[in-house]
Amino acid sequence: MMKKVLLVNTNMEMRPYPVPPLGLCLVASSLGSEYDVCIYDPADDRGAALPGVVEAFRPDYVGVSVRNIDDMNFVNPTSYKETIRDLFITPIRDITRAPMILGGSGFSIFPEYFLDYYGADFGIFGEGEAALAQLLQCLDNRGDPRSVPGIVMPGAGRAKRPDGYLNLSDLPFSEIDLRIDYKPYRARGSYPVQTKRGCAHSCIYCTYNCIEGYRYRVRPPEQVADEIEQAAARLGNVTFEFVDSTFNDPPGHAEGICAEIVRRGLGVRLRTMGINPVNVNRHLFDLMLEAGFAQIDCTPDSASPRMLASLGKNFTIDDLERTARIVRDADIPTMWFFLFGGPGETEETMRETFDFIDRSISGRDMVHMTCGLRIYPGTGLFRRALEDGTLSPGDPATEARFYISKDLGKERLFELVHEASRARPNCVPVMETEPSPEMMREALELRRARGLTEPMFRTLLRVRYRMLGCEMRG
Question: If we measure between CA atoms, which residue out of 252, 254, 473 comes closest to residue 367?
């Protein structure tokens, strides 16, 4: 008799928009037809239906994905670990003693901690597609789970990184809309597509390469276009989002994907995050516009030469200035993201970033300003925080810990960010990125009245400018 596997998504965050469980759906696809797989997604009921699902499905194995452990908000941090325990782990354990297997990016940052905290039987460090299938087969055959790469077990010591990584060309498509109810994601969300894993850069705060490695593993452009074409045929008018850490790395990969989408004439709507200024050129942006890009996110984090070096960035101010010119010339709606307060940040370095915003970023594009950097183990920032006393020796940073430059301090950092926001209506501090219900209602009414199809952030900026009595520039 075919054994049953219940995969549980624990991510209920809806800000800034809901994110479909790409990882769980990829794992489900990778299990193929050897197991009866059910995915529970809380997007519509916030966990209320889970006990009934467990009772009715009666799984032989339960996989639980921990995507985020907190919201990385220094001003008012929200931890998710207790909510995950209360709404997901405990109800499952109350009904079944089927082996519980943890995974996901959040789990992989703190594998031993969460294995113990949630009392799970196994955990998967890193990529789960091949590892879960191997673990289940091992358990079915009464083998030794420790023989499976990336498996974490109670009492087995520190988690070991697998020796190798998956060839992404071998992975089946996620087919998210066939595995979960996609309705909660249609209005505000997007359909996530991953074109690569790994990251060759060394930004001091980032965990991408700690989990996925420092070498890019890319999917063939034809395969990426196949996935988009098939999903578009099923879903119709949805936005597809490339969720790679950086879209235009390595050089030529993004161009190949865009060219293939153009060649097929798919007529889809696209967006992406993580544009790397080093590899930006007008040819790339022309291809992106022709392929159907309606929005991009550019994440330089700073526009101060000293801070770019401190944060471990691989680009220069000249690269960033060139990128900003191309963005404006292409007239592609862009959200810019800056981090303030990292090692070595001063009032002068912050002014350098604000000067760049004033001269280079359109007032129609939103600038997202974050205060403080979340400290994660295995990163350069973690080591720096230990060296300068920001983090105490032995602190695992499982509770949210943030780095704030000692040259500024929390109060002065907040003061400077608020001053920048008051002077620049398109600059939005992290504490104000969630629009009020009234602001959202006005934005929706404006979109209906004017027939606007622009990205929502631009409509919200129109409302923000009006509220502040300003004219939108750019």
Answer: 473
